[in-house]
Specification:
mainly beta, five-stranded mixed beta sheet
């Protein structure tokens, strides 16, 4: 048996050697016969001579990338560009040199240049990176109106003016009839929640880093309402310390919601208006104390002062307050006049400027306690000492130092309601009509707008508006200003 197995193994080994030898022979024969020419004639590639791997782009400025592409003879090339955005719309462009306004956030991005040889259909891909930087971290924004068109501009700390910035970035115009410009911040902190440009019938929200319409939050005023009112018409807005807007729309009072995280998309949105039978005049007073907020408003039909408190949302209480009238000067429940302007000084004294049916202007002074006990205390009623200052275009700013700044025509005056002293602003404004009046946050600077110019004046202690500086080249007439 063992002998038979050995014979079988010898035969099997011989067969394997024979098969291996045959495979080798046939392989050598195949190699010997395959004399084909495998050299491939590839088309010439376009030469990219000046494309860098990394570019730095400043938000709001031009991003220009010239790759220096040289086309092979007899070919037609098309260059397309894409900067990828993780949480938004990619930035794309078609052309031999990329020329765009960089409006993305101050982050890092991956770019791709695609070169399409339209003659033979070949495509070539070249990657690059873009680092976004912003010059909007500090500076001055100005809202203005130029020949009926709303404009939004930015002034860098070095004084460089980027006029008509919104149009440059978005390629479209803002809504007409500008009213307010807000830089919303929470509790006076450094975190800015957004810019709001408010117009008579609309508004736009901008990201503070990019000046683009914010995609995270509602980016227009109509979208900032959970239920948008019909025929939306803004009467007045103010900025609340929680970084939201409060105000009167279509005669009703609205307050931005603060009951959620300030980075939530719904933060600052308007719910339903304060419920009640009322129609408000545009001007009102907002008071904040002990983490509570109240509003003194005026019903223009009933001609009476009313109370609104903020309890998460605005709550209308009408005339639910006690009247204390030690001077017997006027009845807040039946004033009998039309409200022109309401101002609160020092978080205490309130002044209302009212127009009588005979056209005379009266000054009403009062105090309120609308955080409990709810009282309205009258102080005085008297004819305003400078009737000539009050027109439809008069602008007002009440300061914590107890004075009121009034702009009328081409001049600004400083009015002290204690002694009725009226003093002209020290700075000569060149005789141009006043289109804007605004206090700085620390109330040490009064900013005045005239045609194409914003004036900065010193109103610190002992100063009466001495000249500090001016910014020229503003497109049109300044309406409002915000400084970051």
């Amino acid at each position: 048996m063992k002998t038979a197995m050995k014979s079988f193994n010898k035969v099997n080994t011989g067969i394997r050697k024979t098969l291996a030898l045959l495979v080798l022979v046939f392989s050598l024969a195949a190699c010997h016969k395959d004399l084909g020419n495998y050299e491939i004639d590839m088309p010439l590639e376009p030469q990219v001579t000046t494309l860098d791997t990394l570019y730095s782009a400043t938000v709001g400025d031009s991003l220009i990338i010239d790759p220096g592409v040289k086309a092979p003879p007899g070919t037609e090339l098309e260059l397309s560009w894409k900067i990828s955005v993780m949480t938004g719309k990619d930035l794309t462009y078609v052309g031999p040199v990329m020329k765009v306004i960089f409006g993305l956030a101050a982050e890092n991005y991956t770019g791709l240049l695609t070169i399409h040889n339209k003659t033979n259909g070949m495509k070539y891909f070249h990657k690059f990176k873009v680092t976004g930087a912003t010059e909007f971290g500090s500076g001055t924004t100005v809202l203005s109106v130029e020949n009926g068109t709303t404009q939004f501009s930015f002034i860098k700390p070095d004084g460089t003016l980027q006029a008509r910035l919104y149009k440059a970035i978005h390629g479209k115009e803002l809504p007409a009839n500008p009213m307010f410009l807000f830089l919303l911040k929470k509790n006076g902190g450094t975190l800015a929640l957004g810019y709001w440009i408010i117009t008579k019938n609309g508004g736009v929200r901008l990201n503070t880093s990019t000046m683009t319409e914010d995609e995270k939050f509602p980016n227009n005023l109509a979208g900032n309402f959970f239920t948008t009112p019909d025929d939306l018409e803004v009467d007045n807005f103010v900025a609340h310390s929680q970084g939201v807007m409060m105000g009167v729309v279509n005669g009703k009072f609205y307050g931005g919601t603060t009951s959620t995280w300030d980075q939530a998309p719904t933060y600052g949105m308007f719910g339903l208006p304060a419920d009640g039978d009322y129609e408000l005049a545009p001007s009102f007073v907002m008071g904040e104390a002990n983490n509570q907020t109240y509003f003194v408003v005026f019903d223009k039909n009933k001609r009476q002062f009313q109370r609104i408190n903020l309890y998460g949302a605005p709550a209308y209480f009408g005339t639910q307050y006690a009247v204390e009238d030690p001077t017997n000067s006027f009845n807040p429940l039946n004033v009998g006049m039309d409200l022109i302007k309401m101002i609160q000084l020092n978080n205490a004294d309130c002044f209302a400027y009212m127009k009588q049916t005979d056209g005379k202007i009266y000054e009403l002074k009062f105090n309120v306690s609308f955080l409990g006990p709810f009282t309205f205390t009258t102080q005085h009623k008297r004819e305003f000492i400078r009737q000539d200052l009050i027109t439809a275009d008069t602008k007002w700013q009440g300061a914590k130092n107890g004075v009121i700044y009034i702009a009328s025509g081409n001049k600004v005056v400083i009015y002290n309601p204690i002694n009725q002293e009226v003093r002209n602003l020290a700075t000569d404004l060149g005789g141009e009509a006043i289109t804007m009046l605004k206090l700085s946050e620390d109330e040490k600077t009064l900013m005045v707008g005239t045609r194409e110019t914003v004036w900065f004046t010193n109103i610190n202690t002992g100063e009466y508006g001495s000249f500090i500086k001016k910014i020229e080249g503003i497109p049109g007439d300044p309406v409002d200003i915000a400084i970051r």
